[in-house]
Amino acid sequence: MSNLTRQREAAGLTQEQLAIKSGVPLRMIQAYECSGAGHRDINKAQALRVWKLANALGCKLGDILEFRTV
Questions:
Q1: Where are the alpha helices (DSSP H) in the chain?
Q2: What integer is the mean pLDDT of 12-40?
Q3: How far apart are CA 2 and CA 66, in angstroms?
Q4: ∠ CA 23-25-31 to the nearest 5 degrees?
Q5: CB 50 within 8 A of CB 42
Q6: How does DSSP classify residue 10?
Q7: Helix (H, G, I), strand (E, B) or coil at 42
Q8: DSSP structure class, residue 36
Q9: Percent of the chain with pLDDT over 70
Q10: pLDDT of residue 58
Q11: Contact yes or no for 18/53 (Cβ under 8 A)
């Protein structure tokens, strides 16, 4: 489960509700949350788009980005 999914569910929002609240297209949210084919890496997303998602969720940018250790 992605950090975006965790934050969205904690906020009690559906993907569609988050899309409306943030102004980020539903298909982009679905792609960020997806782990299979069609997955989009939220770490490579436009900064404004990530900011809109975090703002709509009431969290920090770092709360929805995916940090990986090497």
A1: 3-10, 15-22, 26-33, 47-57, 61-64
A2: 93
A3: 7
A4: 135
A5: yes
A6: H
A7: helix
A8: S
A9: 97
A10: 97
A11: yes
- Averaged confidence pLDDT in the chain: 93
Residue 2 — very low, low, confident or very high, per pLDDT cuts 50/70/90?
A: very high
Q: Which residues of 19-41 are buried (b: 16+ CB within 10 A; e: fewer)?
A: beebebeeebbeebbeeeeeeee
Q: Are 1 and 42 in contact (CB under 8 A)?
A: no
Residue 3: how many other CB atoms lie within 10 Å: 17
| pLDDT tens-digit series, residues 29-59 | 999 998 777 788 999 999 999 999 999 999 9
Q: Which residue bears the tokens 């943030």?
A: 22
- Sign, CA torsion 56/58/64/67: positive
